[in-house]
Specification:
The complex is a heterodimer of chains A (about 400) and B (about 80). Chain A is mainly β. Chain A contains one helix and 22 strands. The longest helix of chain B is centred in the first third of the chain and has 17 residues. Classes of the chains: A mainly beta (about 400), B alpha+beta (about 80).
Chain lengths: ~400, ~80
């Protein structure tokens, strides 16, 4: 890690103005009203940068108990992400590095081909990206990454698992906020101990329009994309191609009131046959009211649905009501329906979560909150949980050198 | 406004067309507008098929076993 950091620093051209920005977040999500169960997370992120370079680091430490309904691969882990950008004229070099390690033994990683399970101990991914700005709005990009997983059998012997990936493409930013991109990607994974080897590649193109402001305070953006995939899924079947359309529209009715609508629809092509793949739609209304200089009240109402070989639905209503100084009250309701993997729960599961709490903002420096949630979910029997969420977010002022 | 209306019309037609007929879907989709890069999907995938790259979940189609744990656990409903 130290070597990578030194290498990143060496890539940075000398600059006059350097600033350091940081963000810290500590949060606790409990499975009961005590802190002993649930998830505890500490996240720190920082960015140091100058005129033509920047280095970003994110470190997340997570500690969780085993009481979650859906089994996890990590009960505790540390996830470090380090990446940077350095510009040399028209060339931008972007090295990156990710290291994710279980703080305990790690949990089960299911091997392909019914080879059993191993313990997932760590994951390492170095990567490098290059991009070149070309005339007439074109930009060429290329990148590659390596993945090394540390997997161990329950008797302590290790299993070698590695992967590599490469991608490249050409992007065009045209007039009228039009854009287009064409490119390809390749990924492979191999585990020599179990004679497992798989790879797939994708070539595709997408065209779209970035946010365009229309009359009546309407903003719209959309994209269409087609990807041809070579390779096989876990059953040895053809991966197939996918044609997708995505659209997003925002309408501001007046200052502080906006409607956001998104939609996605796609078709798959497999063995020469077209079939519907996924369709999704979502709408969200956000109302913000408040006096200048005060923390505004905010009310959010949203709903989304998806339809594919399974369906999901989500409805959300939340409010932040400013009380006094930096103190606000929080209210939320989330209704969800979707597929479940919980034994005995049937094919789908309904969840209703009601929450109430308080938050306090220390100007633009910090935020602290606590919330009590009541969740009701449908499993083999109706289950109710009372949960506690609490956290602190801290944004130290940027430091200039 | 006309473009807005016709775009919404096109969206409705596409959604209506896509919602009818059988589905051959064998690949999950991550909604880039909804994904917050929290990594919960990565934690619950027992096959190592999900990676968070540049703050967004990416599902490897060759490793995904379509077990739907990530769909169930995603707090934003961003995987479908």
């Amino acid at each position: 890690m130290k070597t990578v950091f030194i290498a990143l620093m060496a890539l940075c051209p000398a600059v006059a103005a350097v600033t350091l920005d940081q963000f810290v977040s500590v949060s606790i999500d409990s499975d009961s009203l005590g802190f002993s169960q649930g998830r505890r997370q500490l996240l720190w992120s920082g960015r140091i940068g100058g005129d033509s370079w920047s280095i970003r680091a994110v470190d997340r430490y997570l500690d969780a108990d085993s009481g979650g309904l859906v089994p996890r691969r990590f009960l505790g882990r540390n996830d470090l992400l380090l990446n940077g950008d350095a510009e040399f004229g028209v060339l931008t070099v972007s090295p990156g590095f990710r290291w994710n390690a279980a703080s305990g033994d790690g949990l089960d990683f299911v091997l392909p081909g019914q080879e059993g399970t191993v313990l997932d101990r760590a994951y390492l991914r170095p990567e490098l990206g290059l991009s070149v700005t070309l005339p007439y709005g074109f930009r060429a990009m290329a990148g590659g990454s390596l993945v090394e997983r540390t997997l161990e059998y329950h008797d302590g012997s290790s299993l070698g698992w590695s992967g590599k990936g490469a991608e490249g493409g050409l992007e065009w930013n045209g007039p009228g906020r039009l854009w287009a991109v064409a490119g390809g990607a390749f990924r492979s994974h191999s585990a020599s101990d179990i004679d497992f080897e798989t790879d797939w590649s994708r070539i595709g193109a997408a065209v779209g329009i970035r946010t365009v402001t229309l009359p009546a305070r309407v903003q719209i953006e959309g994209r269409a994309e087609y990807g041809h995939l070579s390779g096989e899924d876990y059953l040895g079947g053809e991966l197939g191609d996918r044609l997708g359309f995505r659209i997003r529209a925002v309408r501001s009715f007046r200052p502080g009131l906006a409607l956001n609508v998104t939609g996605y629809s796609s078709l798959d092509r497999k063995d020469g046959e077209w079939s519907r793949a996924v369709s999704a739609g979502a709408a969200r209304v956000v109302l913000t009211r408040g006096r200048p200089g005060e923390i505004p009240h905010q009310f959010v109402l949203g709903g989304q649905f998806t339809s594919s070989s399974f369906s999901t639905a989500r409805f959300e209503a939340s409010a932040r009501i400013h009380l006094i100084d930096g103190l606000s009250s929080l209210l939320s309701t989330v209704l969800r329906e979707g597929p479940t993997t919980i034994a005995g729960a049937g094919g789908s599961r309904e969840r209703v979560t009601l929450g109430a709490g308080l938050e306090y903002r220390f100007r633009d420096l910090a935020l602290v909150w606590v919330k009590i949630l009541e969740e009701r979910t449908e499993l083999s029997t109706i289950e109710n949980w009372t949960r506690l969420e609490a956290g602190l977010r801290f944004w130290p002022h940027p430091i200039a050198f | 406004m006309k473009l807005y209306a016709s775009s919404l019309g096109l969206l409705v037609i596409l959604l209506a067309a896509a919602c009818s007929g059988p589905t051959g879907q064998a690949r999950l989709e991550v909604d880039p507008c909804l994904c917050i890069g929290c990594g919960e999907c990565e934690e619950v995938c027992p096959y190592g098929a999900v990676e968070v790259v540049d703050g967004e979940a990416v599902i490897d189609p060759a490793l995904c076993h379509f077990c739907l744990r990530c769909v169930e656990e995603c707090p934003e409903g961003a995987i479908y």
